[in-house]
Amino acid sequence: MSAPSRNEGRLGAWTSWLLLTPLLVLFAAVFVVPVVGMLLQSAFDPTFTTRHFEQAVSRPLYVRIILRTLQISVVVAVGTLVLGYPVAWLMARAKGWQAALIGCCVLIPLWTSVLVRSYAWTVLLARNGLINNGLSGLGLTDAPLRLLYTEGAVIVAMIHVLLPFMILPLYAVLRTLPVDLTQAARGLGASGFQVFRRITLPLSMPGVISGLVMVFILAIGFYVTPALVGGSQNMMIAQLIASEIAEAPTWGFGAALSTMLLVTTLGLMAIFHRAISFERLAGHRS
Amino acid sequence: MNRSSSGSLRWMAAAYAVLAFLLLPTLLVVPMSFGRNPYLEFPPTGFTLQWYEAYFTDQGWMKATLFSAKIAILVSLVSTVIGTLASLALVRGRLRGSAGLQLLIISPVIIPTIAIAIAVFLFFARLQMIGNVLAFVLAHTVLAVPYVVLTVSAALTRVDADLDLAAMGLGASRAEAFVRVTLPLILPGVISGAVFAFIISFDEAVVSFFLSGVHDKTLPRLMFENIELRLTPTIAAVSTLLTALSLVALSLVLLLGRLGQRRVD
């Protein structure tokens, strides 16, 4: 009785596609067509050419920016893992008001504008900002340190902004681990560190990989934070793309850089597609 | 036993330290917005509302705020409607290749926004639509719709499709059954999706950066320019207001989440 009725409750193929039509039309017109247009612009100028791509991988300045982007993104991904793991662990074990409090602490930054959070770092790290004033107040420094517009500033601020994207997938995996398992290991004489290294960590690997991939992908294309906190001396690839589009007379090179970033991301998505699920992306509660 | 609890304590201490790191920088902006000095300093001295006054009386700030609000409201409406329809198809429909469809729908979230921004900029520049409201609404809807689909799909999976069938057995048409049975049950999810979409559009800085014209610019674009050029506390006041708006939106979504759960139970 229930099987046929469930089937009747489903919409027919025609109705389903009809319901999807507005979204698909929008995506085709404002997403797929522009992206294809960008790909064409990067490879035709006006006839087929690979010179924009060659330029990107041969000029030392551009190579340096690409390498810096990859390097910062790796450091940021690992940094969010180290900082995010204890939070995800506590979030998975907490109950009642404590769980609610931690959940809010993770969700609030996710909902706050990236622009505001990056701005906060420019204030904190400024010459007369909180950190410099604190250091000189404690007598640790004589003159203000140069903190803003450094690679370190970019890394710290990006870790701060991207941390929720690591915590949520880790939490999704950690909360499914049975507590009995770690208790059994302790009962058999394992130390806290052994339990972590041999049980908790290996079992949470899907969350670790998912978080690393997501943070890395988001980091290589990041624009707002590095632009405000790092300045032009510590340029990452998104800033290079933006300045090429804003200043260069033709847009071919900017389109080519953008294409390279897009292809890298799609490649990572293809390899790790199972790690990037709809639900994990939003850190879904259910 | 003893060592285990001290180990746990160390983990807890680390976790709370990271949570403080997560929240404090944004909260520090709040006291700065009330400080008297015209340049940013910490700790701020004195108390004044002059930076809020400066924001609310400045034509440029007001114009950008209204421009962003107009776009965000339209984005919220459009993406909620088309996102809800798409969710119905994805959850209730008989679709071949729905995994591929899901991947397509979330791709604007994963693909670097800068790449989307450049593609959309080249597209609308050719159509001479830079600074155009429609261009913003269309581009932001692409970015916001995945969140609507996600929220509404989650709400739909919790509602039994047999309820609609029961209503149809009693003589309702399929559309009637949806509007009078399923829609009220998923309404909290739909409203959450609308709030999500509004905030995503209102806070969006990268696509806005490129689509903004000299005169028609969004609030995030104007904030970006202000942060880069001169660090006046007015930007601290705007940031505080924007953070407050995010908090209100988040509370609303959390509240609606509970409501949705209760309705279905």
Write a short abstract of this structure.
Chain A has 286 residues and is mainly alpha-helical.
Biggest sheet architecture of chain B: none
The backbone outline of chain A, from C-alpha atoms, is globular
Q: How is the CATH topology of chain B named? A: MetI-like fold
* Percent range of helical residues of chain B: over 70%
| Assembly status | heterodimer
The coarse overall form of chain B would be globular
Sheet-strand content of chain A, in percent, reads under 5%
| Straight-line distance between termini of chain A | 28 Å
What is the CATH superfamily of chain B?
Answer: MetI-like
Mean pLDDT of chain B equals 89
Q: Give the radius of gyration of chain A.
A: 24 Å
Question: Would you list the SSEs of chain B in sequence order as H and E?
Answer: HHHHHHHHHHH
Radius of gyration of chain B: 23 Å
Residue windows where pLDDT falls under 50 for at least 5 positions of chain A: 1-6, 282-286
Structural class of chain B: mainly alpha
Distance between the termini of chain B: 41 Å
- Extended strand count of chain A: 0
